[in-house]
Amino acid sequence: MSIGLWTVIFVGGSFALYLTIAWWARVRDTKGFYVAGQGVPAAANGMATAADWMSAASFISMAGLISTMGYAGGVYLMGWTGGYVLLALMLAPYLRKFGHFTVPDFVGDRYDSNVARLVAVICALFVSFTYVAGQMRGVGVVFSRFIEVDVTTGVVIGMAIVFVYATLGGMKGITWTQVAQYWVLITAFLIPAIAISIMLTGAAVPSVGLGANLRPELADGQVVSLLGKLDQIQTDLGFSRYTEAFTGSWDKVNVFFVALALMLGTAGLPHVIVRFYTVKTVKAARWSGFWALLFIALLYVTAPATAAFARYFMIESLNGKTAEQLPSWFHNWEKTGLILWVDNGDGVVRYSAGADNEIFRSGTLSGTELSSLMVANQQWIDSGGAEGADARLVLREKKLSGPDMDIIVLATPEMAQLSNWIIAFVAAGGLAAALSTASGLLLVISSSVAHDLYYRVLNPKATEQQRLLLGRAVIGVAVVIAGIFGIYPPGFVSQVVAFAFGLAAASFFPAIVLGIFTKRVGTVPAICGMLAGIGFTSWYIIACVFFGMAPWNFGIFPAGINPQGIGVIGMALNLAVTLGLTPLFPPPSAKVQEMVDSVREPEDAGAAVEIETAPEH
Amino acid sequence: MAVLLSVWFVAGLGCGVLWADWLNQYTLPGTAFPLGFWFAQQGSIVVFVAVILVYCVLMNRLDRKHHNELVEIRRKEGR
Questions:
Q1: What ipTM does this complex have?
Q2: Residues of chain B positioned with their CB less than 8 A from the CB of A603
Q3: What is the tally of structural domains in chain A?
Q4: pLDDT tens readout for residues A270-279
């Protein structure tokens, strides 16, 4: 059977499963809608958290980034899992004990101010929307390659599915759907990785295969390790060695800052924090933190293996091939524009780091721009350089060298020539990853608007019915906005995602940590701190990314600080401003101090604050 | 908890980043992994999982102890 047919079967089957679960788990009250009635077992919540967490970025883009970046790709691995440790140790159990619905709720109540609540709502909305846009792009990539429908149709189908199960089941529906999605995505990630690992090294565990020797028949009978071979071919082609630490602008300072910013940002992501509100007890919140990281780690230790395998196939199957010898995966993906071959006239493909590189991607170029470029290139070849233009120069200047990193995971099974059903299953896995994260984020958007903004600020007298209706309506509006982002992706999604992490690191993380661990910090210093952190971080990123400001080097860091890592300094600034202003302002009211005490008290672990009896509910 | 956070820092940012180039001259015994590379892409994650596991066990034990003490006190007061 063809890949297309298998994909329709797997994707259709998984969608039907999600909808069935949603129908079974439909809810009627706000508690069920926002926190799944707080009745989710720890292990299931762990799986749901893992699916929520592992977005299209983890599933589709991360291995691709590592594949291209080599050692420095580790910042994403360490950043996203390391942030989890902070979250599970310092935030989750305490926030669960506090027992409200959302992060802005905590910020608003702890600092006893609607201004603080508003700042938090805006951050939560910004972070969530940026993220959803990325997910929808992932959905578009999968649909356009595998089912060969238009990207627009693909995104609309995805939007409809998410809308149905998110509005029907709220958090409860989303949680149980995410449990199913976790299994789909993890098997889809592991099966090809295991198959390729056996194929290349004979080791069945991909993480072991990564460090093992290549099969003798792949290395001309010599004993050479996979990583050794990769280092060698990378050097031959002018790239830096795959395992080399600190190359180019990724020097030690930047790797450190970006990893730390991702960790701190991760710990402040609202859609993951809210997951810890769905379990029964504080104890369960801790255990679900553990389960979640365990389930996440399964994918995260496999991703570097997939990345290295893909790098190996990518270089081996392209270099030195003529047009007829090019593998079929190349032609399949060429249609999407995510990988291009621009010949220099000798008819042989060369993928390298130098001026002779012939592998590119189309990026944001339109179809007509691209075809006129290719025509000019053909003229240039035919005329021996007298007419037309060398398209390679143009593309290199536009920084479009090398294939698009998003295709690595999706194309690797094809590169390794695995069976069609595996390739199709990977497509379903990519969709599961994108949809699970999108639904979690949509719920955060909905709760931020309907609960924090409408119920807590605008109309505290709203009835249960009104709030539920508004929550569902907001999801509808948010789905449409996210879908528009998916159909017309802004060209700067990846920079904006870095922005989201930086903002989360510079705003939520310090505010929540100080909120839990000090009783002295009052309203005004906290708001000033958050505004200082956000203001500085956004200014630096906007100036660097959109207006070409040279990154700061503070006179000591030769490469300057990567905008992705600036959140660390933003956070330090937030802490400095907050703590510096604290002695000048009165401490919070007795009621708030009592609340902090109750959140930190270890006793009565069995009975966390019930939402109905929580103060001010 | 401070100990756990320092393990987090040493394994992730220490071995994975700060000393990665120095550690890279060694390989993980029995495999081809340069040690710094291994910490950045595999080891740190394994350590993170272990840190959370230890935290869960210890904190839950602490919570239970406090809970039992509290019950004890209440019972005495009741008498």
A1: 0.74
A2: 63, 66-67, 70
A3: 1
A4: 777 777 766 6
